[in-house]
Structures are given as structure tokens and as C-alpha cells.
Amino acid sequence: MNCRRAGAGEYGEKVVLDKSLDSAVKDSITEFGFNIVASDRISLDRAPKDLRHDEYVCVDLVFCDQCKLGLLYKY
């Protein structure tokens, strides 16, 4: 099952705009101080980039019945 989301700005990916929007981009930067054209294409509910170190991305979470403590084991 692949639950990876797709769309502009998901997981920290850059937003690529058409060349036809160049003048709108320049106008928005002049007026608002940032690229509102690209900003409008990015979901507010986007998934952020995973900034964890590679060795901590895949871990097992094991619960100990006696102590109710979660232990992390690296692969």
C-alpha cells in the first residue's frame, strides 16, 4: 500500500511553474514580497520533508508489557 501524497510542495519538493506565468510571478513579488503564484498552488495541508537522519527513518516500536515503555530498534 503506497500512501505517499502527490502535489505541489509535498515533502519539500519544489514547485515548477510555466514560463507563461513569469510576469505574474514578478508582479506578485513586487507587490507582496514573495511568490504568491507558487504559494497558491501549494496545499496548506501538505506533508513536510522528512528531516530525520537516514538511520532513524526505519525503526520498530516494541512495547514491553512489564514496564509499559516503548523501545526503538534500528534495522
Which helices and strands appear, and what pairs or packs with what?
Elements: H1 22-32, H2 36-39, E1 59-64, E2 69-74
Antiparallel strand pairs: 1-2
What can you tell me about this protein's structure?
With 75 residues, the chain is an alpha+beta fold. It has one domain (10-74). The chain contains two helices and two strands. It has helices at residues 22-32, 36-39, and strands at residues 59-64, 69-74. A two-stranded antiparallel ribbon has the order 1-2. The longest helix is centred in the middle third of the chain and has 11 residues, at 22-32. The two termini are 21 Å apart. The mean pLDDT is 77.
Key words describing this protein structure:
alpha+beta, 16% strand, 75 residues
Low-confidence stretches: none
Instruction: List the domain count as a whole number.
Output: 1
Number of helices: 2
Got a strand count? 2
Q: First CA to last CA: what distance?
A: 21 Å
Query: Globular, elongated, flat, extended or rod-shaped: what is the shape?
Result: elongated
- Structural category: alpha+beta
Main sheet makeup: 2 strands, antiparallel
Strand content: 15-25%
